[in-house]
Every structure is written in structure tokens, then in C-alpha cells.
Amino acid sequence: MALCALALLGSCSHRDDGREVVRFWAMGFEGEVVTQLIPEFERRHPGIRVEVQQLPITAAHEKLLTAFAGDALPDVCAIGNTWISEFALLDALTPLDPRLAQTPSVQARDYFSGAWDTGVIDGRAYAVPWYVETRLPFYRQDLLKQVGIARPPTTWAEWKTAMAAIKREVGPDRYAVLFPLNEPEPLLNLGIQSPDPLLREDGRYGNFRSPGFKRALSFYREVFDRRWAPLASNTQIANVWNEFGRGYFSFYVNGPWNIAEFKRRLPADLQPTWMTMPLPGEHGPGASVAGGASFVLFRSSQHQDAAWKLIAYLSEPEVQVRFHGLSGNLPPRRAAWDAPVLANDVYARAFRDQLERARPTPKVPEWERIAMEIKLVGEQLANGRLSVDEAAAELDRRADRILEKRRWMLDRQAAAQMPAAGASR
Amino acid sequence: MNDSGLSPRLAKAIVNGLLIGLAVLSLAPLLWMFAVSLMQPGEASAFPPPLWSSSPSLHNYHELFSRMGMGRYLFNSFLVSTLVTVIAVLLNTLAGYAFAKLAFPGRERVFRLLLAALVIPAQVSMMPLFLMLKQLGLINSYAGAVVPGMAGIFGIFLVRQYARSIPDELLEAPRIDGAGELRIFFQIVLPALRPILVTLAIFSFLGAWNDFMWPLIVLSNENLQTLPVALASLSREHVQDNEMMMAGSVVTVVPVLLLFLVLQRYYLQGLLVGSVKG
Amino acid sequence: MKPATAGWVFAAPALSVIGLFFGLPVLAALALSLTDFDIYSLAHIDNLRFVAFDNYVNLLRNPLFWSALGNTLYFVVVGVPLSIAVSLGAAMLLHSKLGLFKPFFRTAFFAPVVTTVVAVAVIWRYLFHTRYGLVNWVLSWVGIDPVDWLGDPHWAMPTIILFAVWKNFGYNMIIFLAGLQAIPEDLHEAARIDGASPGRQFRHITLPILGPVLLMVSILTLAGYFQLFAEPYVITQGGPLQSTVSVLYLMYEEGFKWWNLGNASAVAFLLFVLMTAVTSGLMWVARRKGVE
Predict the structure, then answer these.
(1) By C-alpha distance, which of C31, C44, C87 is closest to C265?
(2) Residue A171 exposed, middle or buried by CB count within 10 Å (0-12, 13-18, 19+)
(3) What value does the mean pLDDT take over residues B58-66?
(4) Which residue of A210, B5, B58, C153 is most buried, as measured by CB atoms within 10 A?
């Protein structure tokens, strides 16, 4: 006990060295890796010390809300792109336009527009993308060739033909594709290709009964009905890389971090067999969700200038390339993609291509919750417990319930801004 | 069980066999936790599961303390539990003694109210308590973690049960001599209550050490987290690092297990006093 | 200071702590459950609405609440009797005159009780691992194929029940043991002379005398088991297919994951009402049967 107390005192004493402290939170593995980029920053800015805290990825959203509720937010954080609108609405974020205007090294037009747009709420920029993520199929070239398909499918129809052919080849115990049931992304990525928006009337109601989303639901359902995909979550598969190597499934829709995993985990003789491809769309290469993480400055921060310097530093193309080398994450800036490591990476090419088409999810604070419902309803749809129409209706019902408070707040705002208009109606 | 018509030797074998079997079931997970904590990373993920490491080492413990900040969590747990214990023992003893031996107006009614409140699960109070502590600026502070444990109905009840056995004459004599109530409490009552104080202290310490939901809510700052909260979040992130998580479990469990082994007489006695209806 | 004044002074610190940090919040929770207090209200208090009983009505209409309630009841209905049966069995073994090394066994059976739920839940998750777990390995000796204990919605809750029984049986065992030791030996003696079998002795002597202890143990265990949370939080995170989401897990998610504090308070109150109803029902049955 006394030893512990001494240890604590010891750690306290070297803490206060007169430098300005910037508290920086980052999620998951990235939070660990980024610490290797900090010394260079601290060398360039001797008056600033950066304190990095790693947020557990599965509890990051929860932790951030808790910190907001408990007035304990850090100065700067890399948050999930889909959460930006939530924190903007809570008035927790500093608008960045004035700072962007004075920082020539961070230029909106160098960023992929889908990624940049996620941080723009009501015309104001609140976030600067750090790394981007978009999901697409990793596939087995050899198995595709084996069933006589020469080039990867680009439309849903071609994809179905390919899956049917593979399923015929591998038999009842193996599958063509893996859509993990414990993630909303596979279904969401199909749904976001729809020309119809996911929410309607400025995010007041769910729009999952739109013809476009229903076509996505039908496609998703058909994949399970025809046993092209197993009814399984990621955790039940245990080791997706091994199973992919064994040909348990031939398409695996997932994110860029898996490039490094497949390189590392697949045995040498299987290395030439796998590749990435853009996600097929209804009528040609499709859109998908612009995921990833973006830097935000919290309004409560007392060290905004220093924190902005950190953001600007981590956004420099060279630093982003270094970060890619450390973590495998994909940079959001076109300038960074010109670096040879990325430009010559055959696996990254499909991501580069698809990033130009990536779309942000609806910018309503409730989106994270709605995404969870998409996961749960999708699981029931895949299990055959709901039909396509029922699933669409159920999703709308759940979304409408979640959005109830938002409708009330928007209506109240409208009423407050235009009392005359309300009266004249 | 002792005269089932079976031969005495067979009966004895069955009883002892069952005792041994149950003891194995009780202890095996704990022993295995210890064994796995000494294994090399990845060694335990094999079939059949190894029961003992081929080259046992303290590697995982070293990792936990040097990289995962386990020392910090251990310190937090000790600090929070000790604070809770000291304050709770003092406040509950004062109140329990008052309810047992000092006739004050409204005593019975207040006590009945307390007993009735015993059925309300603590979770009901958590949401407003969080908002209250936020107003007081106690979220993310040790104080926030300690506050709800500072006094408890069960503790008061425990002391009251025991204090009722103090003979009244023991208290009356000094009163006649003009001693103040505080002096009587510290010089006569406290020594008489010593066994139950030990019990109460163990209960408070174990309760605070093992508490999960409240510290999870109130201590989101990594530097302040107690062992169970830190372990839960580590184990979600490091699902594959079984060996290291087992070492984390050992660090979390060993202090309370030792406390129990040393003081089990008081603990078990207190459990009986506490559960006898008053 | 008169004893009466001293009484108030001595009781005051503890009572004010309980009143301030428990009594007041409970009342506030009741008020909170009638509002839609959420993350927006945390940002701006004028985003708060009084919604009367809407939270309760919506909960009762929400299938997830019912499935959480169902999961909790499953845990309680299977877990409590099983837990008590094991406790009673262990107590009788320890009470038996034939047993050796009783202090050792008593300590061994009790050890899981004092351990930290989170820490042992981490062990459990691993013991029941589909491929590398000790449990499936032992089952393989008798030719049972690996069971996906924590990934299969049918097995996840039973696994958690086993965990709870393992963790808790020692506690009630001690209370039963004290109850058994209080039974006069000559009662059994007399019954034996009358030729009563051990089973009949248990039914007609042991159980009736243990009645009040049994009632109390049941109520305490019920109250504890209704508050299932840390086990699914650590072992299964509510999955698979939400088969281990308990009422308190739902409350935690509503309250401290999504920050709908009004709704979470309503969940907590519904649980409280349910617990009170079940325990009072149990008392009523016991009283009719003449226990107490």
C-alpha cells in the first residue's frame, strides 16, 4: 500500500513539467500506434506535451458520451465519423472553419469528398478526417477462376451469378460469402447504394420502406435464403482469416485493416489467391459507407490552439503515410495516396477507387442507435423470421421511435424561429 | 445422511467422495486461472488445454504492470476500498449502537423505514445519483466512487444486532459517574463491539473491492479505474490474450481471497448474525 | 448530552448519508422516470419534457423489454432453485458426521463467494471456450461433441446460470449449515428408532425446521438474482441474439450507454416492482403454509 502510494506520488511529480498538456483520445489499435508519431510533434513544439489515452473500440461511443455527461472530455479526439453530428448537436464541438482558413496545409479539396462531408454539419466544418474506411469484398481469385468467372463482378446480378456458381462448386458445407450477423455494415452498405435516402424529411422519419432500400433487403435476404452465406456472426467463425484460407467462404466484405491481417495470417501458398474488389452495386460499382475516424476539438477544451496544432500535424500527408505504414489505415487525402507505398499497393487500389464513391450516413445524432437496429433487424431477416416488407416496416417503426425526440426538437426550433409562419398556417 | 442403511464404510466413501468432487469443482477454475496466468502468450489456446505451463514465468504479470498500468488500478482499488471501509465502519457503528442502546424519539419508526428501504435495489438510485454528483463535481473522482458506500442499512443492522447484547449496566454505571456519551462510546462500546467491527470491516472492504456497476459508471477516467472495471475493459479489448487476462484475474482476486482466508472466522460469523431475522 | 440527544447525533451521519445518497435519488428516480431526460437534456435542460407514464407504456410495448424480462426470469426461475439445492446439499455434506477435513472443505466451497465477479467471469468465458475450453475437453472424454456454450443462444444463459451457482452456493451453504446445527440431534434419533428412512427424515424433520431459514435464503437469493448484470456484461455482452440481455443490462444500456436516463429509471422501477411482487408473493405462500 505504502509502495503504491509512493509510486503514485512519483508519477505525479514528473507530470507537471511546465509544458502545456494536450489530452488526446484515440480508439483501439490506432490509439496505441499513434504514440509513435507524438515524439516528432513534441520536438517541433517544445512547449506542448501530448497525453494519449486509448479508448477501447467496443466501448468508445459509450465512453465519449459518459465523458460528455460527466464533463470529462479531452481536448481533442478522433471519433467515429457517424458520431460527429451527435456531438455537434450536443454543442460539444468547436466549429473549425476559422482555423481551417488559417491552415493552408489542411485543404478540404484534397480530401475525398465523402469523408470530408461527414464532418460538415449545417454548412459548418466540425471535423477533419484522420483515416478512412470503406468496406468492400476481399475475394478468392482462384476459386472464382475455378468456376469460370474471369473478372470480379461489378453488379448485383453478376455477383449473384458468381455466388451461385461458387456454391454449386463448394457444396452444402461451405459458402460463397460471409455477411457477419453481428455487424450492421454489410446490410447498410447495400442499403446506402439506394438512390433513396435512408431517412426522410430532414431526418425526421425512417425511409427504409423506400423501393431502393427494399431491393437491398431482398438481395440480402436472398443471399441467406439460397445458403450463399452462413447464418453466423464473426465470433462464431472464430478465425475468419483461417476460414477464408480454407475456402469456407470466397467473398468477405470488410474494411482496409484486413489487408494487413490477410498478409500476415494467410500461409505463403495462399497469398497469391486473394484480392480486393469494389463492392458491386445494383447497376455497376456501388457506393458504400464513408467510415473511419475524424479529429474534433471539444468546446470544453482550454488548450484549443495547441490541440489544433496536433490535428494539423497528424493531417500532414507525410505523417499520414507514416501512420499508414504503422497501422495499415487508409489516409483520407489524395496527396497521401500519391506516395509510392499506397500508389503501388494492389490491395489498396479497390479502396482508392471506392473511396471516391463513399457516402456519409445520415447526419442525425440517433444514427448509431438506428445502425444497431439495422443489425438486429437484419439478423432476423437473415434468419427468415421477417419478410422483406416486414423488415422494412419494422426498421421504420424502430427508427421513428428513436427519432421522436428529434422531431419534437426540430418542430420546436421551427416554431421559435417563425412564429408568424406557424400562425398563418 | 449418516444412517442410510448402506454399510457405514460405503456411506463414508460417498460423503467424502462428494465433498472432494464439490471441492474440485469449486477450486478448479481458480487453480486453473493461476496455472494459465503463468503460461506464455498463446500457450493456453490449444486442444487439449494444457494444465500446466511447459515453461512457467511471470511474463504476463510483468506485462500487466509495465504496459497495462495494473499497479495504478491496484492502487485505486485499495484506496477506494480502504476509504469506504474506514468511513462505513465509523458511521454504521455509531448509528447501529444508537439504534440498539440509545432510546431517542422516532427511533423505531426510522428503523422500520430503513428495513423497508432494504428491498429497494441500489440501481434505482443510480441515474439521479449520477446527476447529483455531476452537480457536485464528483464524477471522475475517488470521492464519487466512495460516497454511496459510506453508510449502509445492512451495516447498521449488523451492528445493532450485536450491540443489543451489551448489558445496560455497563453503560449506566459511567453515566451515573457523569461520563459523556462520546466517551462511553469510545471507551466502553467500541471495545465491546470489536468482533463485529472486524466483521463489518471485512464486509465493507469486500463489497467495495468487488463492486462493479457503480465504479463503471462514475469512474470513466482511465487513471481512476478500479481493478474490476479495468479488467472488464481490458478483457473486452484483449479477448485473444487469455494468459494475460488470467494474470489480471489473479491480481484482482488474490487480495480478497487472502483477506478471507485470514479472517474467515469473523466473516462467516458476521454472515450468520446478518442473516438472522431481527 | 442526554442519551436521547446522543442517539440522534450518533445516528445522524449515517442517516444523512443514506438519505442524501440513496433516499433522495430514489425519489428523484421516480420523478425522472416521468420525463424524457436524455443526452439532449444534459446539453440543454430546456430539451426536457414531462411525459407522464409514456416511458412505462413504451417499455411495456417494447419487445426487447419483454425479452430482457424473459431472460431475467429464466435466470431466476432456474438459477435460484438450483443454487439453493446445491447450497443445501453442500451444507448437509458438511453437517454429516462421516465427512473428514470439514474446515478445509468449508473454506474451499466458500472461496468462490469472495472472489470478484468480473475476474472469475473472465475465467468462465475461457473455461467454456468452444475449442480450447476445459469444459469441452472434459466432455470429449465421454464422447460429447464440442458445445458452443457462449455462441449459441440456447446455451448462453444456462452457462451463465452455472456460473452464478458456482459463484454463490457457498454463501447460502453457511446459513443452512447453521440451521442444520440448530436441529436437536434427538429428533433424528427418535425418527430412526421409529424406522423412518433418511429421505423421510429429511422431508419430515429437516425441511420443516429449516423452513424459516429456507424462506429467508430464497428471498435474499431471489433479490440478488434479479439484479443480474456483471455476468452477461463480461461474459457475453448480452449476446448471442440478445439472449443474455437482462433487465439491469437493459437499464445500463439505456441509461449509461445511450443516456436515456428517464427511460432507464422507468426500467429500474419496473424491476423494483417486480421484485417486490415476487418476494411478497413468496412470503404470502410461506405464511399460508405456516412457515415463519
Answers:
(1) C31
(2) exposed
(3) 85
(4) A210
Contact C58 A365 (CB under 8 A): no
DSSP E strands in chain B: the ranges are none
Q: Does B129 sit within 8 Å of C21, measured CB to CB? A: yes
Query: Per residue in B64-84, is it b (16+ CB within 10 Å) or e — as a string?
Result: bbeebbbbbbbbbbbbbbbbb
C-proximal residues of B, 179-238, CB under 8 Å: 180-182, 185, 206, 209-210, 212-213, 216-217, 227-229, 231-232, 235-236
DSSP β-bridge partners for residue A139: A251, A275
Contact (CB<8Å) B128/C272: no
Percentage helix, strand, coil for chain C under 3-state DSSP, each rounded to 5: 75, 0, 25
Query: In this complex, which chains have at least 3 CB pairs below 8 Å with chain C?
Result: A, B
Rounded distance between C-alpha atoms, residue A17 and residue A393, angstroms: 59
Rounded to a whole number, what is the distance in angstroms from the first to the last CA of chain C? 41
Q: Does C241 touch chain A (CB under 8 A)?
A: yes
Q: What is the pLDDT of residues B26-58, one digit of tens each?
A: 999 999 888 888 888 777 766 677 778 777 888
Nearest CB neighbour to C259, from listed A58, A69, A408 = A69
C178 at B interface, C-beta within 8 A: yes
Closest residue in B to A3 (Cα) is: B75
Longest CA pairwise span in chain B (Å)? 76
Residue A99 has pLDDT above 70, yes or no: yes
- Taking the C-alpha atoms of residue B80 and residue B224, their distance in angstroms, rounded to an integer, is 10
Q: Are the Cβ atoms of B22 and C94 closer than 8 angstroms?
A: no
Percent of chain A's residues with pLDDT above 90: 45
Cell matching residue A357: 464513391
User: CA dist C201 to A69, A287, C99, C188, Å?
Assistant: 60, 75, 19, 7
Residues of B in contact with C251 (CB under 8 A): 123
Q: How many CB atoms lie within 10 A of CB A331?
A: 26
Q: What's the predicted TM-score (pTM) here?
A: 0.85
With cut-offs at 50, 70 and 90, classify the pLDDT of residue B5.
low
Residues 21-80 of C with CB under 8 A from B: 21-26, 28-29, 32
Residue A342 to residue A324: CA distance in whole angstroms = 9
Asked if the C-beta of A411 comes within 8 angstroms of chain C's C-beta atoms, the answer is no
Region C209-238: mean pLDDT is: 87
Q: Is the pLDDT of residue A8 over 50?
A: no
Subunits next to A (3 or more Cβ pairs <8 Å) are: B, C
Cβ atoms of C251 and C264 closer than 8 Å: yes
Q: What is the mean pLDDT of residues A24-49?
A: 91
- What is the DSSP code string of B66-101? HTS-HHHHHHHHHHHHHHHHHHHHHHHHHHHHHHHH
Q: Which of A1, A3, A4 is the best substitution to test chain B (most B C-beta atoms within 10 A)?
A: A4
User: Would you state the pLDDT for residue A15?
Assistant: 53
Neighbouring CB atoms inside 10 A of B220's CB total 23
